[in-house]
Structures are given as C-alpha cells and as structure tokens.
TrEMBL record:
Gene3D superfamilies: Zn peptidases. InterPro entries: ArgE/DapE_CS (IPR001261), Peptidase_M42 (IPR008007). This is M20/M25/M40 family metallo-hydrolase. It holds the Pfam family Peptidase_M42. Keywords: Hydrolase, Metal-binding. Its cofactor is Zn(2+). It comes from Ureibacillus thermophilus. GO terms for molecular function: hydrolase activity; metal ion binding.
Length: 458
C-alpha cells in the first residue's frame, strides 16, 4: 500500500510532508491545488485544507482507486488543446495524460522542460517532447540509472522527442524515482548522481526494522522495489524472497545474487544515522549495514541490468534468518537452484575481500572463479582486492550445492556491535565491480565452462 505522499508524488503534485498525512502545499500552484481538492472529493477522502496546509483524516486507499478518482476529476477539467510553454506558463497537471502527470511534473522541477507528452494509452510507448536547451544526454543517462531499457530520442527541429519503452503504469514508478533527485545533483554529473542514488537506497534499507524471524516489513519493501525489474518474484515456504530475470536472449550464464534481509538484533527505534564523510554509524545500537548494504546493492544492480547488454539469467535470493545459522538459505527449495552456474553473495565486511572459502577449510569455488574477480578489479582500477578466507555466510550453503560461489565486501565493519559502521564509498566500489562483472558476461561464461571441463576430466 502506497503512502499518501507517494500517491500525490506519483500523480504529479509537489507537496512537502510535514508529518503523518500532513502536507505543506505552499510550493504548489493554486490551479493544481484546486485539482487536488477535486480528486480528494471524487475519492471521498476526508481532508482539511487551511492556510495551504493539507491534513488527510482517513486511512490510506489503494492506488488503483486513487487513479480512478484522479481520472474522473481530470475529465471535468482537461483541455485537449492545452499547450505548455515552460518559459511562461505554470504547468497545470490536470491537462496531462493520467499516467504522465507525475513524470512530466518532476522533469520540469529538475529543469528538463517539456512541451508535449503522451502516456501511450497502453497502445504504444510513452513519449515526451522536451525543449532543445536541456542536456538530453544527461537525462537519458539518468533514466538508464532508473532501469528504463533502450532509452532513445530523436532530435526534431524545435524539440527532442523522447521515447520510453515501458508500460504507462511504470510512469508512476518513474515519477517517484525522479522525485528523489535533487536539482543541484545535476551539475555534478552522472557518476555523482549514481552515488547519491545508491546512498539513498542504503539509507532507506537501514531505516526498516527486521531482525531474525521478524523480516516481514523489510521483505515487503524489497519486494516492491524489485518487482518492476524482474520477470518473477515470490516468497517461498520459509519466507525467503526469490526472484529471477532473463536478460537479452538468455544465452549466457545463470548467476545467483544473494543478500540476507535480517539484522542480528533490532534496529533501535528513533535512532539516527550519523554521517562523517563516507563513514556512516548509528546514534544508538547497531547500524544494520550487515546486510542492508548488500540488499541495497542488489536493488541497484537489478535496475542497472534491466537496461544493460548482459545476456543470461539472474536469480535473486534475499534470505531470512541468516544471522541465526543460515536458516533461510538452508530452506531454499532445490529446484530454484537448478541451472545456477555461479553465485555472488554480498555480505562481507571490509572493502576489498573476495571470499573463496570458510576459514580455508570449506572451499566455495574453484580458484579460477575467484581469480576472475581479482582480474576484473585490476582492470577497473580497484586497489587491494584479493581472494581471501572468510567466515560463515549463505555462501556456505550455495557452495554445498556445487555452485561456484564468492562473497564480496560491501563496506561494513564492527558488525553485530554498537560500533558498527559503513563506508559508503566502499559499497559504491562493489557496485562498480558488479556492473563490470556482468558487462564481462561472455568471459565469465568461458571461465565457468573451463572449470566445468576440468571437473569432468578429473
């Protein structure tokens, strides 16, 4: 269920949430505020609006019901001949296509001035026309960060015509993602934006409770985050979140990506995340970066893969009860692991470990698999990364199924204590490594075939 803030943002309003169901409307135009009132009345939502402060005085409603109310109110106001000139006009969202309202509003907020748009009406792909004075290459790069596949644009005489190869319902998700961008980030370039988006993802995951056996809330949040970027997602009989996606023609390796949802103990209610440069700590109790950093990385890489050139399949497993003995991983049904060529676990402390065994006693993989990761880190200039021994993690379980497996550092340290910290710069480096690993999918497949051939020859 979406919050009221999400519903308003996804449908095109720009309000500042002051507290639960309370919003400051001072930045909203009078026309758009009147339209919002009409929508609330069509939806039979009880509210109080006084001095441009809006208070919703009833429980949440399903987004599909909200969308129907917005459409009813828009039909009474929409002018088919409406033309928006961003140099002179304030955007009146009631005249836009239903599913395009939020995306167009956010684009204009960020300075990507639009002139015309169409949500495709589920008959064609959505299109947006933008002024020629915008940085169209930056915009397309941002859209790719959000997992929009095959973004393309055409340079017309007076504008750019942007085509989005997504369903119109996904425009609502895009609006929400664009709302997380700060306009000042745009001046710093795409790498800076990518770092900030990863940091946002980490912070969101760190804000959600979920100790071992109590993963319901974090599982629900992660499921909603992953759903737009996978072909299939479900919760198994034990509570693990399983998903998979075929990329390109599927003719490539099948990789398992894994992190665990639970924290060793509950995150303290009301605590704050203290940020000292790239080092994050908790004001009280554990930070929870073990393993919320790994969870955030998988969400980010799922978005990246959705618009990448990788060919193959990825199976995603977010396990429960890892902290009390790898319990969730041990309960994953065997059938879900069928066909997996290799596993990448994201649950290691530090900033440069490629863990290939448990204490040097239980091997996780053939040495060639670990060395493949080492070589990639050298190619992209990551310093200090090497194959090392490690401790217990879900990697033990995947390796016991005969899957070539490694566990990568994700930047946390002093885990399971009140001194736990996360170096978000190290987390970002792991993200860069993952992107490169999937970019080299063909070479990875050859490495795995060589390992398989050697095994057969023994």
């Amino acid at each position: 269920m979406k919050t009221w803030n999400q519903l308003f943002t996804r449908s095109g309003w720009i309000l500042e949430e002051q507290g639960k169901n309370t919003f400051d409307c001072k930045k909203e135009t009078e026309e758009n505020l009147q339209f919002l009132q009409a929508c609330l009345e069509k939806a039979d939502v009880q509210y109080v609006l006084k001095n441009r402060e809006l208070m919703i005085v009833q429980e949440l409603m399903d987004e599909s019901n909200w969308i129907r109310a917005v459409e009813k109110a828009a039909k009474e106001r929409r002018d088919p001949s409406y033309y928006f000139n961003p140099e002179y006009d304030e955007l009146e969202i009631c005249h836009l296509d239903l599913y395009m309202m939020g995306t167009v509003r956010q684009l204009n907020r960020l300075g990507f001035s639009t002139t015309l748009s169409c949500d495709g009406h589920d008959r064609r792909f959505p299109i947006i026309c933008l002024m020629k004075d915008i940085d169209i290459d930056l915009l397309t790069s941002i859209l790719r960060l959000f997992g929009i596949p095959r973004v393309s644009y055409y340079e017309m005489r007076n504008h750019y015509k942007l085509s989005l190869r997504i369903k119109r319902s996904q425009l609502l998700d895009l609006a929400e993602q664009l709302s997380n961008l700060h306009s000042e980030w745009l001046e710093q370039g795409i790498e800076y934006i990518e770092r900030q988006l990863l940091n946002q993802e980490i912070e969101q995951c760190l804000s959600i409770p979920g100790s071992s056996g109590e993963e319901d809330v974090i599982r629900k949040v992660v499921r909603e985050k992953m759903k737009p970027y996978v072909d299939y997602i479900s919760v198994d009989h034990y509570g693990n979140l399983l998903a998979e996606k075929t990329y390109g023609n599927g003719n490539g390796p099948t990789i398992l990506l894994n992190a665990h949802l639970d924290t060793v103990c509950e995150i303290e209610p009301g605590r704050t995340i203290q940020k000292n440069g790239t080092i994050w700590t908790s004001s009280e109790g554990i930070l929870g970066a073990d393993d919320r950093a790994g969870v955030a990385l998988i969400v980010m890489i799922a978005k990246h893969l959705n618009q990448s050139d990788f060919c193959g399949k990825v199976k995603f497993i977010f396990t429960v009860e890892e902290e009390i003995g790898l319990v969730g991983a041990r309960h994953v049904d065997e059938y879900f692991l069928w066909g997996v060529d290799a596993a990448i676990v994201l649950d290691r402390r530090g900033n440069s470990d490629i863990v290939t065994s448990s204490g040097g006693i239980i091997p996780f993989c053939n040495s060639q698999y670990g060395l493949f990761f080492e070589q990639v880190t050298k190619e992209i200039g990551l310093v200090g990364w090497a194959c090392r021994e490690g401790g217990s993690s879900d990697t033990v379980v995947w390796a016991s199924h005969g899957i070539e497996s490694v566990n990568l550092s994700v930047g946390y340290g002093n885990e399971h204590t009140a001194k736990e910290f996360l170096d978000v710069q190290a987390t970002y480096q792991t993200y860069i490594l993952l992107k490169r690993i999937f970019q080299k999918g063909r070479e990875l497949r050859r490495t795995l075939r060589n390992i398989s051939t050697m095994r057969c020859a023994q």
